[in-house]
Design goal:
Blueprint (H helix, E strand, L loop, with lengths): L2 H24 L3 H41 L2 H4 L4 H6 L5 E4 L5 E4 L1 H6 L10 H5 L2 H13 L3 E7 L5 E9 L7 E7 L1 H37 L5 H33 L5 E4 H18 L2 E6 L5 E4 L1 H17 L4 E10 L2 E8 L21 H6 L6 H11 L3 E7 L3 E9 L9
């Protein structure tokens, strides 16, 4: 039996009960008349409530259908979306209340490696539940939301997500992603750098203070003791001076533009080898040069001198015996310099970090040899500022080879 027929029968029964009540009232039977009137009233009331509920439900369904129609992709996106989104360098998505992507700009497609993100759930493109939650909450609550999130696809990155609702189109929300990965990396580098500098300065300062206090407490110390302690103070002061010098060189390599001129790299390398021969011989090492007599490159002579000198100095410091070969090659557009030793070598797990500031493979040996932990970092920054690359190959106990590849640059008039 259909719902409308059931309602019709219920209304007929209610009406019959009312008529019966009137007849009983006329026959002087008020008790039964009142009973039938109550039954008729209850039936009519229940039918009226049911009908009213159905009318409200129908009204809500129609309103939802209207909203759903208004939330269609063509109605939700504002005019000029393509022009506005195309000019933004940040990844930008337009999503509906369920997190479905209606449109995305080119920056978002490139960032998330998706040729066309439209029609896909946001979470399937970004693999980030946090981003999906933010845009859904922004559309539902009508608030501007922001949160720092980490994403793993297409590569591990970090950034701040901004989500907000279009007030003229309540079913439409926007989500933008501002990447802060590099900012956080720089902040970590800065914190590590400050901590390392503090540590490197604290050690010699503590040593100087200890020696000075000893001399102060021993005013009658013999001359031999005084000379030993004063020699220690001078040694630590020299170490502080070298750290300060290396920090200035590193700062200049990182921040100042490279001022290049034509220089003869072969002569520069041969001069450094000649200057270092005496120290190499004291360490029972054979230092030699192999390469052309002249090789012109477009570079900053002072900075390239630092590069070569640091590499040769490291080879001497970390070799107990054997030979050190400094080789220079002309490879067309590039000049390639390599410094090979037969020293202690570098464990493979340290190779990726040897160019970091203040990073030492053997801290005790480095300090004993007077190293500051900045030499290879200076090499890396100067070479990269010149448009070149530096690399290292090493095996523990067999030695290391550091290779620098520098672009020769266009020939130019030699400056006075």
């Amino acid at each position: 039996m259909s719902q409308s027929r059931s309602e019709w029968i219920a209304w007929v029964a209610s009406g019959a009960a009312a008529l019966g009540a009137l007849r009983l009232w006329a026959d002087d039977d008020p008790a039964w008349a009142a009973f039938l009137l109550v039954v008729a009233a209850i039936s009519a009331g229940l039918l009226a409530v049911r009908r009213w509920t159905e009318l409200l439900a129908e009204k809500e369904r129609r309103a939802a259908a209207v909203r759903e129609a208004a939330d269609g992709p063509s109605a939700r996106l504002p005019a000029g979306w393509s022009e506005i989104a195309r000019g933004l360098p940040l990844p930008l998505f337009a999503c509906d209340r369920s997190g479905m992507i209606l449109a995305s700009n080119e920056a978002a497609n490139r960032f998330f490696d998706c040729p066309d993100c439209s029609g896909r759930p946001l979470i399937s493109v970004t693999l980030s539940a946090e981003m999906e939650r933010l845009v859904i909450d922004a559309v539902r609550e009508g608030k501007e939301l922001s949160e720092e999130v980490r994403i793993a696809f297409p590569s591990p990155r970090q950034g701040r997500v901004y989500a907000w609702r279009d007030e003229e189109r309540p079913g439409l929300g926007y989500l933008a992603f501002l990447e802060t990965t590099e900012v956080h990396q720089l902040e970590r580098v800065r914190q590590d750098f400050v901590a390392n500098v503090s540590h490197e300065l604290r050690t010699p300062l503590a040593s100087i203070r200890a020696v000075a206090e000893t001399l102060l407490e021993e005013p009658d110390a013999d001359r031999a003791m005084q000379e030993r302690f004063l020699g220690k103070i001078i040694e630590e002061v020299d170490r502080l001076t070298q750290i300060s010098k290396d920090l200035l060189v590193l700062s200049a390599a990182e921040s100042n533009p490279v001022r290049k001129q034509q220089c003869d790299l072969a002569i520069l390398v041969r001069n450094i080898v000649a200057e270092s021969k005496a120290r190499a011989e004291q360490a029972n090492l054979e230092l030699s040069y192999e390469g052309p007599k002249h090789l012109m490159v477009d570079a900053n002579t002072t900075q390239i001198y630092e590069v070569v000198a640091n590499l040769v100095d490291n080879a001497i410091k970390y070799s107990n015996d054997g030979a050190i070969l400094v080789r220079l090659e002309d490879q067309g557009e590039d000049a390639v310099l390599s410094v090979s030793d037969q020293g202690i070598g570098i464990p493979s797990e340290h190779l990726d970090r040897v160019f970091e500031r203040f990073y030492r493979v053997d801290k005790g040996r480095s300090r004993a040899k007077g190293g500051t932990g900045l030499g290879l970092s200076i090499v890396k920054h100067i070479v990269e500022a010149h448009g070149g690359k530096v690399s290292v190959q090493s095996r523990l106990g067999e030695g290391s080879t550091f290779t620098v590849r520098l672009p020769k640059g266009a020939p130019m008039a030699k400056e006075a």
